[in-house]
Structures are given as C-alpha cells and as structure tokens.
C-alpha cells in the first residue's frame, strides 16, 4: 500500500510543479516582475534604481543575464511599456552591466538578455575588441555609473573573425582586423583545417578573441583591473549562438 501512496504523492507533486509558471520561480534581480508574453500581468514600466543597482553583486548580475537569455530562447520576453520607461529613465540611469558585442545585426544585445531601457550599457564594434575609447566607456560604466559586470560577447559565424583569418585587406577594415588577428595566432594549436571555411576553427578563434579581449581590458585599464580584484565587478566572456539564441558563458 505504501508504494501506491508514494506514487500518488509523487503525482500530486509533479502536478503542483507543472502549474507553476517557470519565470515565477525566481524573481529577476533587475526588478523584472513581468512574466512574459503569455502573461496578463501589467507591462513593465519601472526602471533600475540606484538602490537596486547598489544592492546587486556581480554574480547576481550574471545570474540575471542568464535568466534573461533563457526567456529570450523560450520566446518569453518581458512585455514593456517603452513610453513609460523612457519617461521613468529620463532622470538617471543605473545599469547593471557593460556588454561589449560584435556589430552583427543578428545579435540584438538588449533582446538576447531580455533587457530594456536603462538596464545595460552596450558597446559594439565588429569583432568585439577593445580600444582606448571602449575602455574609457567601460570605466565610465563601472567606476562612474556603478555597473557590476563587464561581459564580452562573441558569436558564432562572425564575419569579422573570418575576415581576420582570411587576412582581408580593404580600407579601414585592414587596420580593424589587426585587433582581431592575435586571436588567430592564439589558435594555431588547433588540430585541423585552420581556414574560415571550418566552423570549428572559426569558433575556436571566436572564443580566443573573447579571452584576448578580457585580458586586454585588465591590462589596458588599471581602474577596471583594481575593481575586479576588489570584487566590485567581474569581467567575463560568453559566446552567442546564431542558431539557437542561447548565450554560453565561458
Ligand atoms: Zn561578428
């Protein structure tokens, strides 16, 4: 009889869990209480406050971005009242992260993390490398404006990475690619075809380019390096899949 009781209890538990909306399980740390496109809850109007930003740790921001990406992959983005958010954000901004992405039109940065007005700083350049201007922007984002995370996002099938592998020469692109080529050199131990036609090699160079960028941030910015050493911020990397929309943290 006990066996039947246990089976019945397990069935009730499964039923209760299946009734729970997946995004209700954890309230987002950036104040996203809206439960997505299928929900009848009101549109999100609120924006990040100074208090909310201050209370976050870098690890909480990483978790928040991972949850946002899960909603993006599940086609369950937070519904927002953009007009209200524009008005509410006009007085100040308290973003949680600085995200450096490639220029690629298939990587809509706010969307892939389910973020909106006032939530994140975004810097973009083909090949997601840093220069003096982007480092200065990151210092502004973290040291002046209080962001807790720097995230460098590379992506699958990146044209800039392929052009660096192919040693393309054209106008200002030539100089731009010199910033990415160290990642090609870092990938020379790759076993197999080291051409842009080999997706696995392109992926390897993409990952190494993200790692190079993280190192360049630390070596090029004593301010950010010190903040990272004190635990005030984290500097991490990720790769975005064009096929699935999923972000994999390195
Ligand atoms: Zn790209």
Query: What shape does the CA trace take?
Result: globular
Percent in strands = 5-15%
The major β-sheet equals: 5 strands, mixed
Helix content: 40-55%
Low-confidence stretches: 7-35
Bound molecules: zinc ion
Contiguous helical run count? 11
The count of strands amounts to 5
Query: Kindly, what is the distance between the CA atoms of the first and last residues, rounded to a whole number of angstroms?
Result: 50 Å
Structural class: alpha/beta
What's the Cα radius of gyration? 21 Å
Helix-strand string: HHHHEHEHEHHHHHEE
Strand order within the widest sheet?
A: 2-1-3-4-5
Q: Could you tell me the mean pLDDT?
A: 89
Structural features:
5 strands, single chain, 250 residues, alpha/beta, 5-stranded mixed β-sheet, binds zinc ion
Describe it for me?
With 250 residues, the protein is α/β, with parallel strands linked by helices. It is 45% helix and 11% strand. It has eleven helices and five strands, in the order H-H-H-H-E-H-E-H-E-H-H-H-H-H-E-E. It has a five-stranded mixed β-sheet with strand order 2-1-3-4-5, sandwiched between helices. The N and C termini lie far apart (50 Å). About 12% of the residues have low confidence. The chain binds zinc ion. Zinc ion binds next to helix 7.
């Amino acid at each position: 009889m006990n066996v039947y009781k246990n089976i019945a209890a397990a069935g009730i538990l499964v039923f209760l869990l299946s009734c729970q909306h997946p995004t209700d399980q954890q309230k987002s740390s950036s104040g996203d209480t809206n439960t997505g496109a299928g929900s009848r809850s009101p549109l999100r109007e609120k924006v990040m406050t100074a208090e909310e930003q201050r209370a976050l740790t870098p690890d909480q921001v990483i978790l928040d971005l991972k949850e946002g990406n899960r909603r993006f992959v599940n086609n369950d983005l937070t519904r927002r009242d953009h007009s209200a958010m524009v008005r509410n954000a006009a007085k100040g901004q308290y973003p949680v992260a600085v995200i450096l992405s490639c220029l690629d039109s298939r990587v809509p940065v706010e969307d892939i993390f389910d973020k909106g007005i006032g939530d994140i700083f975004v810097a973009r350049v083909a090949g997601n490398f840093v220069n003096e201007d982007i480092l200065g922007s990151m210092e502004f984002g973290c040291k002046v404006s209080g962001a807790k995370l720097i995230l460098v996002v590379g992506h699958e099938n990146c044209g800039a990475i392929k052009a660096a592998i192919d040693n393309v020469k054209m106008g200002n692109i030539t100089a731009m690619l010199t910033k990415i080529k160290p990642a090609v050199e870092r990938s020379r131990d790759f076993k197999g075809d080291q051409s842009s036609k080999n997706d696995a090699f392109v992926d390897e160079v993409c990952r190494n380019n993200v790692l190079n960028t993280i190192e360049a941030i630390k070596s090029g910015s004593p301010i950010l390096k010190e903040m990272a050493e004190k635990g005030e911020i984290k500097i991490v990397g990720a790769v975005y899949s064009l096929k699935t929309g999923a972000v994999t943290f390195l």
